[in-house]
Inverse folding.
């Protein structure tokens, strides 16, 4: 196995354990915003899609890449926006109604 | 820009994502978490746009990207503006988009590299495409069920598990074959088709009450698919972000399974609530019922009230009426709290978001254990649209299908009131003994209409006690 693969496996292992530790601490109160935030973060697939859509090596790859960028962009814009919207609703004390 | 600079930008992005999740753990820091998450994504996208592969192509490289950005934003903004009651289906839909992106990148990579794909790359590609495509169709199916375009009851047929497992087996087999012999390019469409089909069939037997677990699981798969892409592209940022997402979905699905006292295998292959006609349902039992006047009087006289919301509250869109009830009772000096079961609703945390949207302070929302500690000292427990999570059979009846599931001990409160349309059993098809207890009053009616009537009664009875 070449060293890149081994390094990547180490990174994956450490990131998974870090993720488990960080996420375990998230209050059940915030589980829905957690899911919409991780959803937005998983749109990181955009990194791969951008290169394929930009390089335009073949018609097929350009098409697939462009659709993938669109799908990722929906999640980036939608995911962060709705998470922020949700979190703005969590208030400690009753605010006076207008 | 040079590769080193881009690596450093990516490192910053990865750090931002980790901080985002860390800060999301508590309400006071959570909004900061979203901001740093956005910063992470901007770094990732910005860094990628500056890659030499794209810069060399000049303006032409960016035309399709620009079009995709515009279309994605135009669809993404309205998806973020959906009402909070629609959050479960919105989440399912965005799992579908995330998984589709990963699967399509995998497909493009395969055809760009074929037939010279290394064995390891092929393994990662196989995993990426398998998880990506199956999560895509499964999430669309989950969306259909949550949006009630498709029947929400689990659909089962003889040999279903055999069919599903063989399909998955065939998909894995074709992936393994491709790893052994990556030159077999014809197998790639077969793998994709099998994964897409499995995604559909996998959700058919899943019912509404299992949605929180399944949505969490799909969340995890979408993340793992992105991590697999990281291995294909040798990109550590993808691996880190994908692993974070994967572990988050995994933790949530474990929490959901524990809250139902069921195993993963049971959720995925059990088709819960299908043919459970219990003998007890046939017995003639009588439940006491009351109208809004009596119920309001009891609530007014109580010192403490615990409201137990469930999916029925979401369906009836009753959260704002519940907020008015909360207000009316607080004004009369009653201590009102909410007891939230982890699987109440259709996704993790669903009830909390709905009640927060209705302006209920989040420190009044109690988790299972805290609520159960307070219920024995509570004067009135008011159940609105929840059923199985309050069924005492889970504690007492060993023959009950839900035996062992952690429930809210509503029956320990001094008086129990249940707003419900009828005595029909809930999702699991199990009769709820709670309704026949001497201390229980059934308030028959629509959750929103009845709650509104309660508020009216309370407000008419004057401010003094």
């Amino acid at each position: 196995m070449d060293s890149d693969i081994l390094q990547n496996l180490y990174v994956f292992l450490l990131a998974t354990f870090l993720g488990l530790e960080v996420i375990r601490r998230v209050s059940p109160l915030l589980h829905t915003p957690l899911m919409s935030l991780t959803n937005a973060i998983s749109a990181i697939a955009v990194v791969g899609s951008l290169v394929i859509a930009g390089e335009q090596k073949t018609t097929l790859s350009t098409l697939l890449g462009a659709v993938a960028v669109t799908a990722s962009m929906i999640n980036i814009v939608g995911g962060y926006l709705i998470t922020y919207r949700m979190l703005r609703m969590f208030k400690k004390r009753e605010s006076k109604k207008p | 820009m040079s590769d080193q600079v881009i690596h450093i930008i990516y490192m910053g992005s990865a750090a931002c994502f980790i901080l985002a999740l860390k800060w999301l753990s508590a309400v006071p820091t959570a909004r900061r978490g979203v901001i740093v998450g956005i910063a992470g994504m901007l770094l990732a996208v910005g860094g990628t746009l500056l890659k030499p592969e794209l810069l060399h192509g000049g303006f032409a490289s960016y035309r399709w990207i620009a079009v995709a950005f515009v279309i994605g934003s135009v669809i993404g903004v309205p998806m973020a503006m959906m009402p909070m009651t629609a959050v479960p289906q919105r989440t399912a839909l965005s799992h579908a988009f995330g998984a589709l992106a990963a699967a399509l990148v995998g497909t493009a990579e395969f055809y760009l590299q074929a037939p010279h794909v290394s064995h390891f790359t092929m393994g990662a590609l196989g995993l990426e495409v398998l998880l990506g495509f199956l999560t895509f169709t499964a999430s669309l199916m989950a969306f259909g069920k949550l949006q009630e375009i498709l029947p929400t009851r689990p659909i089962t047929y003889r040999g279903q598990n055999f069919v599903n497992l063989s399909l998955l087996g065939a998909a894995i087999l074709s992936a393994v074959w491709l790893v052994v012999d990556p030159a077999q390019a014809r197998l790639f469409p077969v793998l994709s088709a099998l994964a897409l089909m499995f995604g559909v069939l996998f959700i058919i037997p899943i019912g509404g009450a299992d949605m929180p677990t399944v949505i969490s699981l799909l969340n995890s798969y979408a993340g793992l698919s992105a991590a697999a892409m990281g291995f294909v592209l040798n990109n550590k940022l993808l691996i880190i972000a994908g692993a974070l997402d994967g572990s988050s979905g995994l933790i949530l699905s474990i929490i959901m399974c524990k809250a139902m006292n069921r195993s993963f295998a049971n959720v995925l292959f059990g088709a819960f609530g299908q043919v459970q006609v219990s003998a007890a349902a046939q017995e003639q039992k009588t439940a006491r019922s009351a109208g809004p006047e009596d119920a309001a009087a009891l609530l007014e006289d109580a010192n403490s009230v615990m409201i137990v919301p469930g999916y029925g509250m979401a369906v009836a869109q009753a959260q704002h009426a519940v907020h008015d009830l909360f207000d009316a009772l607080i004004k009369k000096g009653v201590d009102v709290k909410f007891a939230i079961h982890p699987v109440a609703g259709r996704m993790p945390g669903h009830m909390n978001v709905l009640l927060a949207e209705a302006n209920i302070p989040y420190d009044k929302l109690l988790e299972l254990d805290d609520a159960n500690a307070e219920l024995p000292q509570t004067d009135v427990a008011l159940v609105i649209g929840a059923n199985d999570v309050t069924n005492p059979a889970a504690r007492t009846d060993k023959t009950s299908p839900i035996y062992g599931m952690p429930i809210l001990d509503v029956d320990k409160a001094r008086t129990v009131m249940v707003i419900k349309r009828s005595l029909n059993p809930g999702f699991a098809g199990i009769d709820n003994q709670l309704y026949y207890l001497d201390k229980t009053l059934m308030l028959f009616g629509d959750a929103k209409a009845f709650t509104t009537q309660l508020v009216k009664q309370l407000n008419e009875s004057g401010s003094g006690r």
Summary: Chain B touches chain A through 114 residues (CB under 8 Å). Chain B has two domains: 103-275, 279-460. The domain at 279-460 of chain B is CATH 3.40.50.1220 (Rossmann fold).
